[in-house]
Structures are given as structure tokens and as C-alpha cells.
From TrEMBL:
Bilayer-crossing regions: 150-174, 181-204, 210-229, 241-261, 273-300, 307-328
InterPro entries: Put_HupE_UreJ
Highest taxon in the source lineage: Bacteria
Protein name: HupE/UreJ family protein
Record keywords, A-Z: Membrane, Transmembrane, Transmembrane helix
One protein family per Pfam: HupE_UreJ_2
Lineage, highest ranks first: Bacteria, Pseudomonadati, Pseudomonadota, Alphaproteobacteria, Hyphomicrobiales
Length: 334
């Protein structure tokens, strides 16, 4: 077995071990869905509240917003939208600024909560609550840099925990040969998903999310099959022009990112800023992953081990099998 082929195998095998643990079920690929709390001041001291909590089947996360000061809430109206439960009510809080908001139960989960407060005077606040920091003081105002920071971190986390997107990038790295071709491939993927992310988020493109998610999984199957064909001496389009495949399927992955962003929500008054920094976070997370892959590759290139020839085929079959499972499961959920 050549050193180059062994390097590719060891690289993919190490990453697949980690990714497979994160993918014990197909639903894990998009389970970084935050809860979302929006408070919109309609009259002085009176807020229309929207509370969106992720659901898994018929089970919802036991999360509740709690305020430290004097508040009075009306009876909530509950609506089940499939992937989440939405509750709306009216909150009377004459002095909301300066209160401590706690997302009760968040510390016992693996999700985050995004909070958006909009005031009559045009100011707003966007905060991100995590299991380690489930409480925060609502400040008097929120500047644009704060919104940028929240959505930048959300973009990074979405790509790093979006196992299907990472698996597609990994497959591209395995099939692409040459540094310049790799740069073209990653750039094409970045441009493509940035285009559809913006178009879908801003409402210019409307595509049902379920078929998009199934096709994303199928795109991984396709590239895995192309890796197998290349190893058999039959180079397909993915081996000859991986940047073309990266661009075409990148358009689909951008629609997947847009679906995740729509679940999070965009703050009114800062939509372009939030969209830009979410996309920037996705790119940063992608570069972190690619950098990690290339670092491992640089290390294993110095390794000299004799392994059977069939071992080099394991990564492509593992990627394809997992992606095919996702495809079947997502099609069954239509």
C-alpha cells in the first residue's frame, strides 16, 4: 500500500470514528436546534412573547423562561409545528431592563436558547443562553457587535456539529488531488452555499426542507460512490472536476443552512448583519475542520505501515453507508 493511499485511509478513519460517534442516529446531524424566546414591546411595559422549544417526537424540552423582577403573564396559547412547540402570551413587565432572565431547565440539556428583546424605542437585545450559562441580565440596549458575536458563534457551532455537512467536506477532501484543486473545490462549495443561504433566508427562494435534507444525504452517497469508482480506476466527474460537484451540491447544503437559520430566527433591524456573521461562522467552522484534516494528513504522511489493500476502501464505504442510512430515514419522514 502506498504512503499516499495509507495517509488518506488513516485520515478518513480517524475522523470517521469521531463523526460516527456523533451520528449514532441520523437526527443528530441537526440536533443543535436552540430554543428561541422573543419579546416584542407593543405598549409601554407590555410585551408580546413567543417561546419556541425544540421537540423530539412527542417530547418537548422542559425549558421555561423565568424573570427575577415583577412580571405578569397572560394565559399562553400553544401550537405544535412538528419540530417545535410554540407558545405565545402577553407579558406585563414595567421594568424589564436590568432584570435577570433565566432559562429554567437549560442546564440539564445539550441545547442553547436564543433570546431577542425588542423595545418600543427601537433598541433591542439579542442574547445567547447555554447549559453552562443559563441566566443573564437584560441590559439597557444591545449594539450591533453583540448581534454579530451571537450569530458568528451560532454559525461555527452549526457547521462543526452538522455531521452531514462535515462528512460531505471530508468526502471531497478524500477525492480531491492536488493543493490547487483542493482550494478550487473548497472555494466553490463556499460560494455555492453562501448564495443559497442568502437567497433562502431573505425569502427569494422557497424550498421544502425535508427533500433538501434527504438530497444533502444523497450528495454524500454520490461522492462516496465516486471515491470507490476512482479507486477502481474509473474516474468520474467528482474525481476529474471536484469543484463542479462541490458547487452544485453546495447549493443544496446552503438551503440546509438556511433551514437551520430559520429555526433560530433573525433579529429585526439586524437581519443583514446576522445573516452575514452566521455565514461567516459557517465558513470559519469549515476552515477549522479542513485545517484539522490537513494537519492530520501532514502527520500520517510520516507514518510507514504495511496494511492490506482493502483497508484503503473502508472510508468510502463507511461514509456511503452512513449517508445512505440518512437518505432512507429522511425520505421516510416526508
Amino acid at each position: 500500500m502506498s504512503n499516499a493511499r495509507f495517509a488518506r485511509f488513516l485520515l478518513a478513519l480517524n475522523l470517521l470514528g469521531l463523526l460516527t460517534l456523533l451520528s449514532m442516529s441520523a437526527t443528530f446531524a441537526h440536533e443543535v436546534r436552540p430554543a428561541y424566546l422573543q419579546l416584542h414591546e407593543e405598549r409601554p411595559g407590555e410585551f408580546a412573547v413567543l417561546w419556541k422549544v425544540p421537540m423530539q417526537g412527542d417530547m418537548r424540552l422542559a425549558l421555561e423562561p423565568q424573570f427575577s423582577g415583577d412580571t405578569e403573564a397572560s394565559t399562553a396559547v400553544t401550537k405544535d409545528v412538528g419540530a417545535a412547540e410554540i407558545r405565545t402570551w402577553t407579558l406585563r413587565a414595567p421594568a424589564l431592563r436590568g432584570q435577570t432572565l433565566t432559562i429554567g431547565g437549560l442546564e440539564a440539556t445539550m441545547t442553547d436558547a436564543l433570546v431577542r428583546v425588542e423595545y418600543l424605542d427601537g433598541t433591542s437585545w439579542t442574547g445567547r443562553f447555554t447549559p453552562r450559562a443559563p441566566a443573564a441580565v437584560i441590559p439597557s440596549s444591545k449594539t450591533a457587535p453583540g448581534v454579530a458575536g451571537v450569530y458568528l458563534s451560532l454559525g461555527i457551532e452549526h457547521i462543526l456539529f452538522g455531521v452531514d455537512h462535515l462528512l460531505f467536506v471530508l468526502a471531497l477532501l478524500i477525492i480531491t488531488r492536488g493543493s490547487w484543486l483542493l482550494v478550487k473545490t473548497i472555494t466553490a462549495f463556499t460560494i455555492a452555499h453562501s448564495i443559497t443561504l442568502a437567497l433562502a433566508t431573505l425569502g427569494f427562494v422557497h424550498v421544502p426542507q425535508a427533500p433538501v435534507e434527504a438530497t444533502i444525504a444523497l450528495s454524500i452517497v454520490f461522492v462516496a460512490a465516486e471515491i470507490v469508482r476512482r479507486d477502481q480506476g474509473k474516474e468520474g466527474i467528482a474525481a476529474r472536476a471536484p469543484w463542479v460537484v462541490a458547487f452544485c451540491f453546495g447549493l443544496l447544503h446552503g438551503l440546509g443552512f438556511a433551514g437551520a437559520l430559520s429555526e433560530i430566527g433573525l433579529p429585526e433591524g439586524h437581519i443583514p448583519l446576522a445573516l452575514f456573521f452566521f455565514n461567516l461562522g459557517v465558513e470559519a467552522g469549515q476552515l477549522i475542520f479542513v485545517g484539522a484534516v490537513l494537519s492530520i494528513l501532514a502527520i500520517v504522511r510520516r507514518t510507514h505501515l504495511a496494511l492490506p489493500a482493502w483497508v484503503a476502501r473502508v472510508p468510502a464505504y463507511a461514509i456511503g453507508t452512513l449517508a445512505m442510512f440518512w437518505t432512507i430515514q429522511r425520505v421516510a419522514m416526508f
